[in-house]
Write a structure and sequence with these properties.
By secondary structure, the protein is α/β, with parallel strands linked by helices. The protein contains 15 helices and 18 strands. Bound molecules: adenosine-5'-triphosphate and magnesium ion (MG). Magnesium ion binds next to loops.
Length: about 400
């Protein structure tokens, strides 16, 4: 479409190219553009994303159509935590002359006030009379001239804000680069099943794997009706928030009370937690097989609680037939909570609630479970049928970019 080639982007999105050496680059770009378009549509923004040689243009869907007043804020909130977006910027457009570009300087003074900055220029149109170094010098000087004395600092190294100029075929655009989270577009690394509790850790773990391109299909295990629905509602709220980063997200709610009761009645008290976690692993693996997922994700961190020792992890892992990804395993609680705050899950996770395990907690849980002892205890149990029933009894909750939907949407 000719009109597209000449359209001027309202915003620009860049991805991490270092991550993209090799043949999967085109697939990655397509995936990111698709995810961005899904997001724009779901958020009701009359914009579209288009791949434009090494970066992505965000344009008006219809030329001249009115945009909501707060479109920048809404887009910024989405892009700053969007997997695959390394940085982005809102463009100002000038005609193709240095004078017209320099006339934009006051706009950028406002955006750069109090910051160190650096101008980088790039010419798509090589016929432009100034080369990129000359554009950089001239525009930086114009921004300085427009600023009150001493309000701005320029730096070549250690700069805090980058002011990017691009000379396109039909116009010049300039924007301040704002940081995204980088990583890979969700969907470019296949599927995994996060074990999503109502706590701090598993939502953060899920987010970190989404950032590596993994599409999450979380499961939450609940003990209703013995406990209230607080934990289940918290898990749903967390899944809803996580869908902001992924788009379509389906949460499976699996009832495990009969499994817990069986373990409580028939297994040594100290091993309850490890045995229940092994059950979780088998359930999650069976679910993963149904939906074509290749790994599980948990929020475990070595040594964080008594049950998360290497011995226990080994005993729990042995029940899984898929790799268990533990992106938090080397992180401290403080680091995890800081991330939870950044991604907006902290408050929900902090909500007190009775979850599956608190009612079931032994007085002295095993911290160094021997796999052999666990297997011996498990042999005396009769879990296969109960696990099949639990998985069959699951309910699904569907979300798309922060909203719950009755049905899965295509
Ligand atoms: P979290 O903050 O994620 O709840 P935690 O520090 O409380 O983690 P545990 O309660 O020992 O740790 O749980 C370890 C991991 O097991 C969790 O991170 C989560 O992945 C999984 N898990 C625990 N409870 C549930 C549950 N009810 N449903 C699904 N997964 C769970
Ligand atoms: Mg927990």
């Amino acid at each position: 479409m000719k009109s597209q080639a000449n359209s001027t982007p309202l915003a620009i999105v860049h991805y991490d190219e270092i991550a993209l050496k090799g043949g999967n680059r085109a697939d990655f770009e397509r995936q990111l553009v698709r995810n961005l378009n899904d997001m724009l549509k779901a958020r009701g923004l009359p914009l579209r994303a288009r791949n434009a040689r090494g970066r992505i243009f965000i344009e008006a869907r219809e030329a001249g159509a009115a945009l909501p007043d707060d479109w920048r804020e809404r887009l910024r909130a989405a892009l700053s935590l969007f997997p695959g977006v390394a940085y982005f910027g809102f463009t100002e457009v000038a005609e193709k002359s240095m004078e017209a570009l320099e006339a934009l300087a006051p706009v950028f003074v406002e955006r750069l006030l109090g910051h160190t900055f650096r101008v980088s220029a790039r010419r798509v149109d090589k016929r432009f009379p100034l080369n990129s170094t000359e554009i950089e010098r001239a525009f930086a000087a114009a921004v300085f001239r427009a600023a009150p004395d001493g309000a701005l600092k320029a730096a070549m190294r250690g700069f805090r804000r980058a002011l990017q100029v691009e000379v396109l075929e039909h116009a010049i655009i300039a924007y301040v680069k704002e940081p995204g989270i980088g990583g890979l577009a969700v969907g470019s690394s296949g599927r995994a099943v996060p074990l999503l509790s109502a706590g701090f850790d598993s939502p953060v773990a899920t987010f970190l794997m989404m950032k590596r391109g993994v599409k999450a299909h979380p499961v939450h295990f609940h003990s209703m009706p013995l406990v209230s629905d607080e934990a289940l509602e918290a898990a749903k709220d967390l899944a809803r928030r996580l869908s902001d980063f992924q788009g379509r997200l389906t949460l499976a709610l699996v009832p495990v009370l009969p499994i817990q009761e069986h373990i409580r009645e028939h297994a040594p008290e100290r091993l309850r937690i490890v045995l229940l976690r092994r059950s979780f692993m088998r359930l999650a693996c069976a679910y993963a097989a149904e939906i074509g997922a290749l790994a599980l994700i948990t929020g475990e961190s070595v040594g964080q609680v008594a049950s998360q020792t290497l011995e226990n992890m080994r005993a729990i892992d042995a029940a899984a037939t898929l790799p268990v990804l533990r992106p938090l395993c080397g992180m401290n609680k403080r680091e995890i909570i800081d991330l939870a705050r950044k991604i907006g899950t902290e408050r929900t996770s902090a909500r007190p609630c009775d979850d599956t395990c608190s009612l079931f907690l032994p007085r002295r849980p095993e911290t160094k479970a021997k796999l052999e002892a666990v297997l011996a205890a498990e042999e005396k149990l009769d879990l296969a049928a109960l696990e099949e029933e639990a998985l069959g009894g699951r309910a699904l909750a569907h979300f798309i970019f922060g909203e719950e939907r009755e049905k899965r949407e295509n």
